[in-house]
Amino acid sequence: MALMQWDEAMSVGVEELDAQHKTLIDLINQTYEAIERQDESQLPRLVEKMAAYGETHFASEERFMRESGFADLEEHKFHHARFRSTVDDFRRSVKSRTDLTRIFVFLSRWLAAHIMEEDMRYAPHARGR
Ligand SMILES: [Fe+2]
């Protein structure tokens, strides 16, 4: 069974964004499984998946915030930019260091601190539309 499972408590009230958040949970599980198998060869693939996640998801989420008039869009974009720059750091270190655990910790923290805190700020806004 996967380590982490999506839960209604994680819903931001927008189907498309929830579906994308589920892919982040998949990514956390895949990273965890690679750590368990001690399969460091998965590292570049996982980093590329994180980058693709950021590209697709942040664009959708920021579009939703813009269209629905969410007031804290600019501050939220700053958090997304930090995710992107951390993924860039991982990309640069893929060749020199292998570190699945750092990716796992980063993504798990992102789920807890970003999705469950920052994204939840627009959830009532989404439901109230
Ligand atoms: Fe977000």
Roughly how many Å is the radius of gyration? Answer: 15 Å
What is the CATH architecture term?
Up-down Bundle
So how many helices?
5
Count of folded domains: 1
Provide the succession of SSEs. Answer: HHHHH
Strand count: 0
User: What's the level 1 CATH class?
Assistant: Mainly Alpha
Helical percentage: over 70%
The CATH superfamily appears as Hemerythrin-like
Shape: globular
Overall mean pLDDT stands at 92
* Main sheet specs: none
Ligand types:
fe (ii) ion
Estimated structural class: mainly alpha
Query: Segments where pLDDT lies below 50 for 5+ residues?
Result: none
Distance between the termini: 36 Å
Percentage of residues in strands:
under 5%
For this structure, the CATH topology is Four Helix Bundle (Hemerythrin (Met), subunit A)
Domain Hemerythrin-like: 13-125
Protein name: Bacteriohemerythrin
InterPro entries: Haemerythrin_Fe_BS, Hemerythrin, Hemerythrin-like, Hemerythrin-like_sf, Hemerythrin_metal-bd
Pfam family, one: Hemerythrin
